[in-house]
Amino acid sequence: MVYILIATGLLVCAIQSIRSPRMLHSALWLAGASALTALMLYMLGAPEVAVIELSVGAGLVTVLFVFAINISGEELQLSQHSIPQTLVWIVLFVVITLAGLLSLPALNTPFSGPEQATQLRITLWEDRSLDVLLQILLIFAGILGVLGLLSGHDEKQSEGKDL
Amino acid sequence: MNLNVSSIAFIAIIGLLGIGLYGLLITRNLIKVVVALQVLVKGAMIFVVLAGHLVGDVEIGQSMALTVIVADTIVAVIGLALAVQVRRRFGTLDVKALTTLRR
After folding, report:
1. Residue-by-residue pLDDT tens, chain B, 103 positions
2. Which of B49, B78, B98 to mutate to test the interface with A (most CBs of A within 10 A)?
3. Which of A11, A81, B1, B12 is least buried, going by the fewest C-beta atoms within 10 A?
4. How far is CA A145 from the centre of its chain?
5. Which domain holds residue B57?
6. What is the pLDDT of residues A63-120, one digit of tens each?
7. Is the CB of A3 inside 8 Å of chain B's CB atoms?
8. CATH number for B35
């Protein structure tokens, strides 16, 4: 029962984050979805990733969204979308049906048990060291992204000072 | 189909993928596009962990999900940085209004 509640809450948060007209509300609903995603990951036996998702997804990303919305401002009046609503629903139906049909047989895979499990530390640092290297590179790219987010702000301030 | 954790997670994953894709298709706001992408990636991330859970090797799923979280965060950062710069340069976040590249 708890699992169904968590899954329902997750879907409601995700829908509200898309439907909400105000971007700030959208970011807050997304933070709720991240927190419930972390709970679901914990339920699936992945507590380390759940903690990281909770701190990064619900914490850092939300702060970044609020910061970006604060800089760029709310924009409520947008043009109508050019993709016909019927086409959107058809594409959605096809994609969901294909994803469901292709991945549903995997649910019948017999659970082989946790006895083969090794420690995450060994898997991450020894078996998947290339992923760690990639993550380091991505973090550097993220730092450059944050600099991009902040750069125009400083120019504006310096222009204001010059005037 | 009995509703165990895997089945409920599977339903949530399909729902998240659908909601994220729907958001990507209908949204005109650049920041909302990043929000929709985040929802889509959350579905993919739970899927990776669920796959690890089903084959009994949760650690490999966890390590891949960790990479997904890092990549997802960086995509959000760069997307938001682009959105802010677009707003400064063009004065709008509307994707449809950004037709400069077509001319």
Report:
1. 567 788 888 889 999 999 999 998 888 888 999 999 999 999 999 999 988 888 877 788 888 898 899 999 999 998 988 888 888 888 888 877 776 655 5
2. B49
3. B1
4. 17
5. 5-102
6. 989 988 888 877 765 656 677 888 888 888 888 888 888 877 777 766 555 545 567 7
7. yes
8. 1.10.287.3510
Residue A3 CA to residue A50 CA, distance in Å, equals: 15
Q: Which two tokens stand for residue A149?
A: 């987010």
Q: Could you give the ipTM of this predicted complex?
A: 0.89
C-alpha distances out from residue A18 to A47, A105, A136, B51, Å: 28, 30, 31, 27
Nearest CA in chain B to A115: B56
| Rounded-to-integer distance, Cα A15 and Cα B36, Å | 10
Find tokens 């796959």 and name the residue. Answer: B51
User: A1 touching B, CB under 8 A?
Assistant: no
Q: Where are the domains of chain A?
A: 1-74, 120-163
* Partners of B94 in the β-ladder: B29
| Residue type, position B44, single letter | A
